[in-house]
Structures are given as C-alpha cells and as structure tokens.
Amino acid sequence: MLGGGFYSRHSQPQRAAARAADAWLVEAATAVPLPEAPTPLLIGDFGCAGGANEMAPMAAAVDAIRARNGAVPVEVAHTDLPENDFGPLFALLESPDGYPAGRTGVYPYVVGRTLYGPLFPDRRLHLGWSAITLHWLSESPAGVPGRTYPNLMSAEQVEPFRARAEQDWRLFLAERARELVDGGELVIVAGASRPDGTSGAEGLFTMIDEELAALVAAGTLRPQESERIVYPTYNRTPAEWTAPVAECGFDLLATELSHTDDAETYGGTADGAAFAERYLPFVRAVTERPFFRWLDPDRTDQQRTEILEAFYGGLAARIAADPASAACRWHVVSLRLRRKPR
Amino acid sequence: MLGGGFYSRHSQPQRAAARAADAWLVEAATAVPLPEAPTPLLIGDFGCAGGANEMAPMAAAVDAIRARNGAVPVEVAHTDLPENDFGPLFALLESPDGYPAGRTGVYPYVVGRTLYGPLFPDRRLHLGWSAITLHWLSESPAGVPGRTYPNLMSAEQVEPFRARAEQDWRLFLAERARELVDGGELVIVAGASRPDGTSGAEGLFTMIDEELAALVAAGTLRPQESERIVYPTYNRTPAEWTAPVAECGFDLLATELSHTDDAETYGGTADGAAFAERYLPFVRAVTERPFFRWLDPDRTDQQRTEILEAFYGGLAARIAADPASAACRWHVVSLRLRRKPR
C-alpha cells in the first residue's frame, strides 16, 4: 500500500465495508475467555496498513473487554507486511484519535510479518480482527495479457489465483487456530464474490484494462510491462470462504455477504468529473504499488512519474465519462469464527 | 536517529561499546525464571534504532534460553520512539542476518513508544537489554549559547540536563520494575562520565562548537538557530547510575566502567584526512537529526542542505587537522540488575 499516510487518508470504502462486522467484534469481545492475572488478553489486528481504519474497532473491542473486567491488561498486536509504513500507525496511536488515549492498561505493538505464517506463540491470542485484507494473495501468480483483475479472467486463467487463495486461507486459519486459546474468536471482513462469481468491481477494472492497452498502443508502456501488471487479489465466493473453516479447527458462528457502494461513499455520480476527482485517490491508493512496482528496471524516475501520470490521468477521464460503470459496489464477506476446544 | 538504515550502517562504535556486556546478557538469560507453558518468555530490547546492533545480542540471549528449555516460546520486543524508522529492523529480521533465521518459536515484535514510560503489562517481562540508549534524554532542556554538549557546560548550565537525566532514569527503572517478573533481569550499557565528570568526547564536541560558531560568523547559520542546537544526552557518572537502583526495586549484581576507542574502531588516526572520511558518517548519524531539526521553519530544503553540507564539510576539515583530539574515547557503564522479589 502507499505509505506516508496516503492509503489511510483514502481508504473510506474499506472502513465502510468493515462496519458490517463491528457489532460482531463487540459480541466476540464479550464472549471470549478472559485470561487469569497477570496474563494479558491479546487482540490481534491482522492487516493494519496505516492504522486509520483500525482505531474505532480496537476502541470498541477494548471497551467491551473492560466492561467485563476493568483490570485485565489488554495487548493489541497490529500486523502487516515488513515493508509496510508503520509510521502513520504509531503517530495515530500517540494521538487523541488513538484508542490508547483515555484508556489505561492498553499495550499496543506491531508485528511486521506476513499473516500467512506464524505471528504469535501457541494459545497466546484471545480475539482477532481482520478487515479488508484477506482477499490479498501472499504472492502474485503470473500475469495474464490484457487482464489485471481475476474476476475478469477466464476459468483457466483464474485457476492459479484460486489455488493460491485456497492455500493462503487454509494457512491463515491453521496458524490462527494454533495461536488462539480454546473459545477464542476471529472476526473477519474481506472482499468477496457473489455466488455467481462477480465482485462488483468489474466496471472499474475493465476501464483499467482499456487504459493500460491505450498506453501500450501509444508507446508509453511496453507490452512486457503491461503483461506483468496484475491486481494480486482473489475474491472468494461465500462457499470458498466457509469450506475449510471447520476442518481448520473453527466453529462458524455467523457469516454474511454485504456490500458497500462507492457511488454513495463518494457523494454520487451525477457529476462525472467531480466524482472522478474524488474517487481517483482511493483507486490510486490501492493500485499504484501493486501495478507499477514491476516496471522495467531501466526506467528512470522521470519515466516512472510520466507513466503514472498518463495512466491515472487517462483513467480519470474514463471514470468521468461513465461514472456509474466505474463506481464499485464491493461485495464483502463477514465471518465470525470460534476456536473449537482442543 | 537517521532513518533508511543510515544509522545502522554507521554505528560500529555503539556495538563495540555494547560488547562489554554481551557476556552478562548470556549470564542473565541463564539465570532468569522461565515461565510455565503456554506463557512465552519475553525479552525486551530497549532502543533498537535500525536493528543492526541488536541481532547478535538477541541471538545469544535466545540461544542461552534454548539451552535451558528447547520448547519455551520466546517473544522479543524491540522498542524505540514512534518516529523511529523501523523498516531496516523489519528487513533485518526477515534476512539471514536476523536472529529468527534458523531458530524456531521466536516471535519478534516492535513497540513504538518512549522507554521513559510504560511499555508492557505487569510481570510480563523476563529479561531486558538496552545498549547505548539511556544517556539520551526524554526531552531536550533549553539550549546553552556556544555549547552543544553537557560535559562541556558549567555546573549551572548543566543542571537542567542532570535533573532531567535523574528523572528519566528513575522512571525507566520504575516501569521496568513493574513489568519484570520477580528475579527478572536487566542488562544495560550506556554512555557515561568518569567520576571526574569527563566523557571522552570533549575533543569532538569542542570542534563542533567551533564549527557552529564559524557558520554563525559567516552568516550561514542564524544566531538563534545555533543557540537551539544541543546534543540532548547526559552521561551519568557511575555514582549517578547506581544511586536509585535499590530504591527502584533492583539488586545491583554487577557494574563496570569501560571504554571504546574510536581511533581504533576507525583504523587509526595517522592519516588525518582518511580518518575524517571514515569517521564523519558515524558523527553525522548521531548528530544530524538532534542538531538540525530545529532550523527556523522558513528555511527552504535547499538552504537546509547547504547548512548541513557547510557544517559537516567544515567539521571534517577540523577532524582531519587534529584527528587524535577528535577521536572519541567513549566511556560506557555496564549494569546488571535483578528485580527484587516483591
């Protein structure tokens, strides 16, 4: 994700989507076993980015714990990739907008490792939260010429993405099952496809594919660069999300498919140019790094800047010309999982 | 400290100094109480910067724990200020040079908060290490015209630095005493003054004061900017280091005053120009941020760059002209402290 707080400032759709599960997080915090003193209760926040969307859910979870026991120390572990820019998160944690403000006995920390692997010792974790993260793949399968978005690929083209997503999800569940205490819970919100296989972002990514093709045709982007550009996510269907849950050690307490409408989040699409101007920073925040880190190594900084400006300028024009098609209606799955007794 | 790994690449004197206490860290790891499963053992590393100097001591401590119990999970909490650049630390932890490589059941994390305050819940910590950090003050007292270095100030001028250092040290000890289990240990190495009040860096800081005065005389630096420049540290004497230890809940198991000689670390001073070239990146790594963050806010980026180049260029010339006086002979205190039973 883009660092320096850019992602945090342009991630309103992610927070809007995650709200679907806020109530479940509080219910889980009210239900998980409390440790005996002096063992602290540990909350894991899996995929924190710059932290802007993490403060409200963590505050609610801590308050729910405190309502049960005013004295239990609460550790909150925010995790993301080691190359994530954690600076904005630390700044938020020190600010009046951070959940530590006004709450005593709260101990935040950061783990800079992939969540598709071990993060904590056995039975250390009591409650986990992951919002708008688990549709990202641990690594990017090979690119597909002309297509950046798995939901727009053919069945054969999408297979490596599906297989990687299945492996990632099982690994995440297995490690969390090891780390959670019996009765501990996970509340997860993540990008999803509807049972028919559509995600609601097909319109935007069709414009993205068209703009990339236009850049290649104009000679701005090289064909081999365009072929490497991919959005390394996979939106599992509800059936794909729930399939391995029991096998990996969890009871599925609740699940729901909901959506967030970017047309509403960004103030409507009646004025196409105005919508494009408001919407583009969000699109840029989630695509710039995954798309353009793979430019040829001989590219100068100036060339990179020119490519980025040409791409996002052209995409803005396409969004302005047909804002209703561009505005995503993201489908998200919410899951509430409880660790089975061992 | 300078981010992006610059500090880590130019901190050989800090590691040389900390080696004095490496053996004590292993002894402490061999002596501290081990937790009962599934509680993990927690090692605190207080003041990690970019992490280059932390890998070897943490590896040795983990190995000493593992020699006693091969199964105990070990958490390692690296702490530094929230504005620290933790990126190089996370990169190191993922690399073959990181102590997690080849060791299972090791769980590193990061706390971005001042160590002069709470970091962990009560009785969570088993073993602590702090190398070349605790002579830095929690905040900088007012500047002293013409003097950047407390060891070169008059008794009256230095008093706010001494008082702040005493308060900081007591706060550090009190919080760690709260966090440590009974019998838990701290091993500390930090800048110190000899009983006569000299630190061994007076020669270098005299050159620094002279160069700053020359920049003011030349109109490069404004007088009010020069007056704000200070090196916000205090090198406690051995008596000042040990005075509050018992009162704050610790037994003093061992203490020692040793030194590290930058003339040796940087390959001798026979060739002044060559020594200055090797030595300057270290001097810059520890002084650039504390000295020059307080330039007037109207300064352009270009002016800031010009001031920095003028200062470090002039300082290099002074070092080259008298390398034997410039080369610090840092005095460091080592302390091994054990938490008294409550």
From TrEMBL, chains A, B:
<dbReference type="GO" id="GO:0008168">
    <property type="term" value="F:methyltransferase activity"/>
</dbReference>
<keyword id="KW-0460">Magnesium</keyword>
<dbReference type="InterPro" id="IPR029063">
    <property type="entry name" value="SAM-dependent_MTases_sf"/>
</dbReference>
<protein>
    <submittedName>
        <fullName>SAM dependent carboxyl methyltransferase</fullName>
    </submittedName>
</protein>
<dbReference type="GO" id="GO:0046872">
    <property type="term" value="F:metal ion binding"/>
</dbReference>
<keyword id="KW-0489">Methyltransferase</keyword>
<dbReference type="InterPro" id="IPR042086">
    <property type="entry name" value="MeTrfase_capping"/>
</dbReference>
<dbReference type="Pfam" id="PF03492">
    <property type="entry name" value="Methyltransf_7"/>
</dbReference>
<keyword id="KW-0808">Transferase</keyword>
<dbReference type="GO" id="GO:0032259">
    <property type="term" value="P:methylation"/>
</dbReference>
<keyword id="KW-0479">Metal-binding</keyword>
<dbReference type="InterPro" id="IPR005299">
    <property type="entry name" value="MeTrfase_7"/>
</dbReference>
